[in-house]
Amino acid sequence: MKWYGISLQNRISLSRAWLVGFACLAGTIGTLSFRTDLSFKDQQTTDSTQDKYGFKSLFKTNQFNANKPYIDQLNPRAVSFVQEYIRKQGKELQRMKGWGKPYFDLYDNVLTSYGIPKEMKYLSVIESHLQAGLVSWAGAVGPWQIMDYEAKRFGLRVGGMGDERMDFYKSTHVAAKLMKELYKEFGDWLLVVAAYNGGAGRVRQCIRKANSRDFWDLQYYLPEETRNHVKKFIGTHYAMEGGGGWTTLTAEETTQVKASMVKNNNQVPLNEAEQANTSLVELSGRYHSMVVANGLVMDIVQFNRLNPGFDKALAEGRKYSMRIPKEKIPVFEARKQQLLMESFRLLIEGTAATPNG
Fold it and tell me: What is the mean pLDDT of the chain?
């Protein structure tokens, strides 16, 4: 992955070591102390993943079909970029899911306190690759690449070794505040990503030139770096989540998915032997039944009988309690990341190994 700027490696190492311990502490401290320090007194505590999806024009039509994979319905103008991005960056992003977990946990806690979808944490991935000491050519600093004037506006110290833009906790609060302001203006998270990178003024100008608020219509009025930034965000979301998830749906598509959802109890009639020899494993991510069954050397018919509605539930972004033989659990735990990537490759390319049985 190509990142512009000067990386201060000594600060990165210190920040990573510090964050592992601090992420746990931050959960108990909450957001109160930071709000006191920086006078954030007006924040909502409603998670916008319940009512603010705002991703417009990401899919081919306004008729989202919850029974089809997200990738099959992705706007054709995004597919080729996402495919190439995943091919180049997929393995690196999967590794980041491991070493970056303390950062992502911290981001989740802070973003939801501002009513911002958790998936917006991937903006930090494409901004800085989670590098605390990154300094861009334009002077943006830290994991969220915040400019000095924005940092000062929200009360952060700027400059020198005490530059608080390099503080994961404090900079995430400022980034959340900025994203909230941008969403209030543009009402679309793709445009928020574009404005965060290229500036709100630039996006306003492009909207006027294109006479449209649709990213796909106005993208070529944006600098190449900015329009690719948005597409990298989409690709990172797919790679990290194993699917499009809630934040890649428009408001109308979200309403349709909610209407189609039924509670997944994963209840199937089991005989006594099956009850004794199987266990449940909770999943999230865009796993595919054929890939999982093949990887676990299970007959696909048996797998589907034990796991009704498996593909549909995960395609809708829900968690699923997968039932598999107890002796298969260590195999799944050892291979789950590989199976997720193979599942995603099946969705992108439409190819998979022949299932066993």
Answer: 75
What's 6-257's CATH class? mainly alpha
DSSP 118: G
The interaxial angle of helices 224-241 and 76-99, nearest 10 deg, is 60
Count other Cβ atoms within 10 Å, centred on residue 128: 24
Sorted by where each begins, the domain ranges of the chain are: 6-257, 261-349
Q: Are the CB atoms for 101 and 254 separated by under 8 Å? A: no
Say how far apart CA 56 and CA 59 lie, in whole Å.
8
Residue with tokens 């997968």: 322
Q: Is 245 left (phi over 0), alpha (psi -120 to 50) or beta?
A: left
The model's pLDDT over 206-229, given as tens digits with 9 standing for 90+, comes to 999 999 888 888 989 999 999 999
CB atoms under 10 Å from CB of 319, counted, come to 12
Closest Cα partner for 145 from 166, 120, 169? 166
Contacts of range 322-327, beta carbons closer than 8 Å, 24 or more positions apart = 322/266, 322/280, 322/281, 322/282, 322/283, 322/292, 323/266, 323/268, 323/278, 323/279, 323/280, 323/281, 324/278, 324/279, 324/281, 324/296, 324/298, 325/277, 325/278, 325/298, 326/277, 326/278, 326/279
**pLDDT tens-digit series, residues 266-321:** 445 666 677 788 888 988 888 888 899 989 998 887 888 888 888 888 887 788 88
